[in-house]
Amino acid sequence: MPTIRVTVPQAAWSKDEKAQIVAKLTDGLNAVAADSGKGDIKPYINVHIEETAEGGYAMGGQVVG
User: Fold this and answer.
1) Where are the domains of the chain?
2) DSSP three-state, residue 17
3) What pLDDT sits at residue 62?
4) How far is residue 29 from each of residues 15, 18, 37, 64, measured CA to CA in Å?
5) Looking at domain 3-52, does it have CATH number 1.10.8?
6) Which of 5, 26, 51, 56 could form a disulfide with 10 if both were Cys (CB 3.0 to 4.6 A apart)?
């Protein structure tokens, strides 16, 4: 099963926004699969959104939050 993992700052995205992220990532991966002859894999795609606590991640070597 394909799995997409996304890490975001805690409370940065609303529940509705996360639903949009899931839908668009799923559709995008499914489109690539279809274009490469793998057919419709949408029912098998898992998307995990992980929220990090403040200070729990870094960008460019700098802790964010």
Assistant:
1) 3-52
2) helix
3) 92
4) 21, 17, 13, 29
5) no
6) 51
